[in-house]
Design brief:
Layout: H1 31-43, H2 47-60, H3 65-84, H4 88-101, H5 106-118, H6 122-135, H7 140-152, H8 156-169, H9 174-190, E1 194-197, E2 201-205, H10 211-231, E3 241-246, H11 248-255, E4 264-265, E5 269-272, H12 283-303, H13 309-318, H14 325-337, H15 356-390, H16 395-403, H17 407-418
Parallel strand pairs: 2-3, 3-5
Antiparallel strand pairs: 1-2, 4-5
Helix pairs in contact: 1-2, 2-3, 3-4, 4-5, 5-6, 5-7, 6-7, 7-8, 8-9, 9-11, 10-12, 12-13, 13-15, 14-15, 15-16, 15-17
Bound molecules: zinc ion.
Length: 419
């Protein structure tokens, strides 16, 4: 299960570049002229050209605050475009340059902090957002994002302080209100949890959970870190990855999820480790659930919102266990009697509208589809498929490019394997 919480509102920037007064006295191109050329390019949306002009202006007028701000703005605008294509790695490089030329400006710091959050680089995000707030206390977007960063770092009390401040100043932020309520609900369940950790994971668990169980869980997760990372083309999300373990009742209370949900990933892995009667889950079941959720961590790290549901859940299933008898009979029935889904119906991020039975079928189909792709074409082709999706192609286009088939053909192949 993969339930992504809403990320904070995108930090959107609109700048006006400033003209410099003064005219050129000599025959040489003066900083003021480069600045004005930069402004024309900027206003026409040609941000790279604008950067080139502003850099020339900056070379001739290093101390000029207007030129610095304009160069900073142009780098921020490029970063904003790159972020829209989910190219956060290059976006952050432009923001580092922006901060270098205009270090007193909190705006690129907030923008960089929000991208680090998107990249799950939580401690880098905290560092940059705290810097922004030191420069300009009361900047509400910075406080909201810093709250998010603390929340991701599992520091719920600090997150609440930030969010309460923002909500007091601007009560109309309804998405933040929802996140705040969710965090408050979780905190009331998790406040006296203990913590432990390994190289890549931090785990919060209810008092009284026996040490051997915790150790086994960390062991499974550390194993998954290397194994799944390798199987998905060398993808290793930045640590720490937060894991919250509950008993069955606490899980329902904190997540408000039905009892049929085995575990979920909403930026943190959340998993119940007992069944409804309080008995510890069997070892194999615990392993299956943790590995399933960890696959979501890796997929999110690689594809963010670009993973179609069937691929995200199909990989999580296929890499955590083989098709079970119950799934095989569901598939057989759906493919024989009708009622199977089209893959295009299984693309949306969340299939909330589905009831429990259709949802089970959707999972089984996703599992069977990804298993078929893995078995027939191997792991490297899957890695290629994932990176093609990451480059921005739609799911069926990427399928055509990498696997040379349409959805209809793939559906037919899965059907004939299970009819
Ligand atoms: Zn899942």
């Amino acid at each position: 299960m993969d339930v992504r919480g809403n990320l904070p509102r995108a930090w959107f920037l609109a700048f006006a570049c400033l003209l410099l007064s003064g005219a050129s006295a000599s025959g040489q191109t003066e900083p003021v002229e480069y600045n004005n050329l930069g402004i024309s390019a900027y206003n026409a949306g040609r941000f790279k050209e604008a950067v080139a002009y502003f850099e020339k202006a900056y070379d001739g007028a290093r101390d000029n605050q207007t030129v610095r701000r304009n160069l900073c703005n142009a780098h921020q605008a490029i970063a904003n475009d790159l972020a829209k294509q989910s190219n956060f790695a290059d976006a952050t490089l432009h923001l580092s340059k922006a901060i270098g030329v205009d270090p007193e400006n909190p705006s690129p710091l907030v923008q960089l902090g929000s991208y680090y959050l998107r990249m799950d680089r939580v401690s880098d995000a905290v560092f940059r957002l705290e810097e922004a707030i030191e420069l300009r206390p009361g900047e509400l977007d910075a406080h909201e994002l810093l709250g998010e960063a603390y929340y991701r770092d599992n520091d719920l009390p600090s997150a609440r302080v930030q969010w309460e401040y923002v909500l007091a100043m601007d009560p109309k932020r309804s998405e933040l209100r929802e996140r705040y309520d969710k965090a408050f609900r979780e905190e009331s369940v998790e406040s006296d949890f203990n913590r432990a950790g390994s190289r890549h994971f931090k785990i919060s668990y209810p008092k009284g959970m026996p040490y051997p169980l915790r150790a086994r869980m960390l062991n499974v997760l550390e194993g998954a870190y290397w194994d799944i990372g390798k199987r998905l083309g060398g993808s290793y999300p930045p640590p720490p990855i937060q894991v919250i373990v509950y008993d069955a009742q606490q899980f329902t209370e904190a997540t408000q999820m039905d009892a049929n949900i085995g575990a979920l990933y909403d930026g943190k892995i959340r998993a119940p480790m007992t069944d409804g009667s309080g008995q510890p889950l069997p070892e194999e079941e615990m392993k299956r659930r943790l590995i399933h959720e960890y696959v979501h961590v890796v997929v999110r790290n690689q594809l963010a919102e670009k993973a179609p549901w069937w691929l995200n859940e199909g990989l999580a299933e296929a890499l955590s266990h083989s098709l079970e008898a119950s799934e095989l009979s569901l598939l057989h029935k759906a493919f024989t009697d009708g009622g199977a889904f089209h893959l295009s119906d299984l693309e949306a991020h969340q299939l909330k509208a589905l009831g429990a039975d259709p949802l089970r079928l959707a999972y089984a189909q996703a599992h069977a589809t990804v298993s078929l792709l893995l078995t027939r074409f191997g792991q490297p082709r899957m890695t290629q498929f994932v990176s093609t999706l990451a480059s921005g192609l739609k799911a069926e286009e990427a399928l055509a490019k990498v696997y040379h088939r349409t959805y209809a053909k793939l559906e037919e192949e899965v059907r004939s394997a299970h009819q």
